Amino acid sequence: MVHVIKPPQPLSLVSDYQRTVFLAGSIEMGTAENWQDYVAQSLQPKDLTLLNPRRDAWDPCWQQTITNLQFRGQVEWELEAQENAAMIAMYFSPSTQSPITLLELGLFASSGRLVVCCPDGFWRKGNVEVVCDRYTIPIVSSLNDLIASIQQRFP
Length: 155
Known about the structure:
Layout: E1 3-5, E2 20-25, H1 35-42, E3 49-51, H2 69-84, E4 87-91, H3 99-108, E5 114-117, H4 125-134, E6 139-140, H5 143-153
Parallel strand pairs: 1-3, 2-3, 2-4, 4-5, 5-6
InterPro entries: Nuc_deoxyri_tr2
Protein name: Nucleoside 2-deoxyribosyltransferase domain-containing protein
């Protein structure tokens, strides 16, 4: 059964990092569809842990500074989760600009654990394709193909 962990839930709840997928990608509250829930539902009844950074109680008023403990905790949760996940499934929604996802692509491009979904219409698709080609990162063009990549990695 798919188990989903979201911040601020502690990552110590992960019992087996060998079967974890971090769901990196477009959030931009109010702009990006909730693709993470779609992925989680589509992967049932797989025995996986999904690390979903889409916080249920995100407060858009939080100052995005290192001194804001809630914001810093969110970013540190995401970084630690990506550093430890067996796979990072990354989605670039065409309706967003996703600057943090672009940053994360750069941070983890050489990790060997990424699979990227970048549909037509994403404003920097060419940049994403070049990075994926350079670092031999599998790239797909639909969420269903991203889900199939996860299923293939975790039969």
